[in-house]
Amino acid sequence: MNKSKITRSAACLLGLQLLIFSCQSPEPQQESKRGLIAENAMVVSAREEASKIGVEIMQKGGNAFDAMMATEMALAVTFPFAGNLGGGGFAVFRMANGETGSIDYREKAPGAAHRDMYLDENGNVIPELSTKGALASGVPGTIAGIFEAQAKYGKLDPKEVLQPVIDLARNGFVVSPQQADRLAGIRDVVREVNGEETFYGKEWNAGDTIKNLALAETLERIAKNGRDEFYKGETGHRLVAHLRDMGGIITEEDLEAYEAVWREPVIFNYKELRVISMAPPSSGGVTIGQILKMVEPFDLKSMGHNSAEYVQVLTEAMRRAYADRNYYLGDPDFVDIPVNELLDREYLKSRMESFNPDLATRSSDIAEGSVLFAESMETTHYSIMDSDGNALAVTTTLNGAYGSKVYLDELGFFMNNEMDDFSSKAGVPNMFGLIGAEANSIAPGKRMLSSMTPTLVERDGKLWMIVGTPGGSTIITAVAQTILNAYEFDMTMQEAVEAPRFHHQWLPDQVLFEENTLDSTLLQILTAKKYLINEGRTPIIGSVDAIMVLPDGKLEGGADPRRENKAAGY
Ligand code: GLY
After folding, report:
1. What share of the chain is helix, strand, coil (3-state, %, to 5)?
2. In angstroms, rounded to a whole number, what is the distance separating the alpha carbons of residues 274 and 532?
3. Distance between CA atoms of 71 and 47, rounded to whole angstroms?
4. Which helix (H) or strand (E) holds 236?
């Protein structure tokens, strides 16, 4: 948690051989820090306006699925960094009656996509082709996903749900200081891609009001004509024409063929918890399952939060899980994925047999495990709980910040650069440094592997936590640590979200620490054991939005102060 506590834990470990009991905290317990408490319903998202609109819809009689549609579109208006119509995502739900499920609205490779489309004549990856410009986009899934989910489980007319979002786009939202910095940071590239006059190429300063009239009109047509407006109507035709003019390959047939898919979530136990998370084509559920089950046999609580011993055990589990992720996982509609085998207790036990508490494992010594066969940081997550007890964890993305930077001025939104989540070439890292294999190679109509990890956790058979985060490849490890913070270290939801995090993803073989996580003592212990520490970089790791159901049934929001996340509730 705070630096002094980490230093104390690390120092304790150094002296472990001398006096193990000295690791007990000598200080009185600090008062717990709680997030927003609500009696009935809550939304926690990256923007206050989006959280409030979701809550407003529930106060008007809508449920979590109505709030999902409103929140997701409000993020598209106020948080174009990652909120989107031109991207995709995943939602995991648990109804009040215990029914669980998930919807996959991940982007798909266009029909004209092919395995080597980002390679030059010598077989080398062409820089930026999969990250910037019209060729970087997959076929968007967001509108299909929110309409499919709302039609099946929601209660209100989509027109009623979307009206406050249309009003928001028309009346405008105020640019925050962080947002002004981000917009300034990409202004040149947005102009380069879309021309000098493009909407987000203008200078937007903190405190300015952005009124996105083109997006208001797009949303109005979608509210009137439904999801087909995006996939078969005027909006879709304009999207295809715009991308075609820029050298893109998404066709009207690609849009017409797009369907969101209901999938069985990945469900596993961690001690007394039942964790429900996203199945492939997201690697989130399988990989967080592998990490948590690999550390389950260890007494993490007695090690101390972010102590050297704790960092070691978790790092070794992360290393092994990411090696499997990158080899085995891809779109289940195209590749066979041994999900049960990868989550098998005995298999995971055998994976940790090479763990040596005195010496770091080298990633070069860890390949994928042998099991029997018969996916920027720039995503966004929101968590919703309605007054009936229905819970939704939703993570949605354009991939990179403002996606491919292609902005459809006539429609009011950015397009994704999700094609970079495929492995353009086996063994060559993508923008997150993730090394992919054949299972995640490009094929027409295939979904690219993701790391998004929208997750629900039951405790004693009741819903306990709704959790998720942006963070590219660090999503999985940030969600795992948030769950462990609350469960193993008894943190409140807000504390669990705020606690400093670290990350390892097999390759590159290095442990990444947030600022205030790594002090000189911890560094000394880990380097003595040959851990490779990325000392130069201390980025934020995730930006978690979570909800915890408290013992009295009230809801506690965990809104990550690393960014401008906000909880709203009633
Ligand atoms: N584009 C980030 C992810 O899907 O993991």
Report:
1. 40, 15, 45
2. 33
3. 9
4. helix 234-245
The three-class DSSP label of residue 121 is coil
Q: Which two tokens stand for residue 44?
A: 């926690």
pLDDT digits (tens, 9 = 90+) for 377-434: 689 999 999 999 999 999 999 999 999 999 999 999 999 999 999 988 776 777 766 6
Say if residues 339 and 289 touch (Cβ distance below 8 Å): no
The answer to whether residues 393 and 92 touch, using CB atoms and an 8 Å cutoff, is: yes
Nearest CA to ligand 1 atom 4: 450
Task: Check the CA dihedral 487-492-497-499 and report its sign.
Answer: negative
Could you give the CA distance from residue 222 to residue 70 in angstroms, rounded to a whole number?
13
Other Cβ atoms within 10 Å of 364 Cβ, number: 8
* CB-ligand 1 contact for 287 (6 Å cutoff): no
Residue 155: count other Cβ atoms within 10 Å of its Cβ: 18
- The pLDDT score that the predictor gives to residue 479 is 98
> How many angstroms separate the most distant Cα atoms in the chain?
73
Q: Which tokens hold the place of 506? A: 């097999």
Q: Tell me: pLDDT of 436 over 80.
A: no
H-run or E-run covering 274 = strand 273-277
Q: Which residues in 335-347 are b (16+ Cβ under 10 Å) and which e?
A: bebbbebbbbeeb
The reported pTM is: 0.93
Q: Which of 131, 198, 379, 395 is catalytic?
A: 379
**Does 379 participate in catalysis according to the annotation?**
yes
Establish whether the linkage from the previous residue to 280 is cis, with ω within 30° of 0: no
Q: How many whole angstroms separate alpha carbon 223 and alpha carbon 50?
A: 18
Question: CA-CA distance, 251 to 322, in Å (whole number)?
Answer: 34
Beta strands in 183-272 (DSSP E): 209-210, 261-263, 266-270
3-state secondary structure of 119: strand
Condensed to tens digits (0 to 9), the pLDDT of residues 314-361 reads: 999 999 999 999 889 999 999 999 999 999 999 999 999 999 999 999
Distances (CA, A) of 128 to 65, 186, 430: 36, 15, 10
Among protein residues, the one whose CA lies closest to atom 1 of ligand 1: 399
13 has pLDDT over 50: no
Say how many Å lie between the CA of residue 448 and the centre of ligand 1. Answer: 9
Which two structure tokens, joined as six digits, stand for 404? 């491919």
Beta-bridge partner residues of 381: 395
Q: Are strands 391-397 and 545-549 parallel, antiparallel or unpaired?
A: unpaired
**Does the C-beta of 107 come closer than 6 Å to ligand 1?**
no
Is residue 82 within 8 Å of residue 378, measured between CB atoms? yes
Q: Report how far ligand 1's centroid is from the alpha carbon of 317 (Å).
A: 21
The count of other CB atoms within 10 Å of the CB of residue 534 is 16
3-class SS string, 403-453: CCCCEECCCCEEECCHHHHCCCCCCCECCCCCECCHHHCCCCCCECCECCC
397 C-alpha to center of ligand 1: Å? 7
Q: Are 512 and 541 in contact (CB under 8 A)?
A: yes
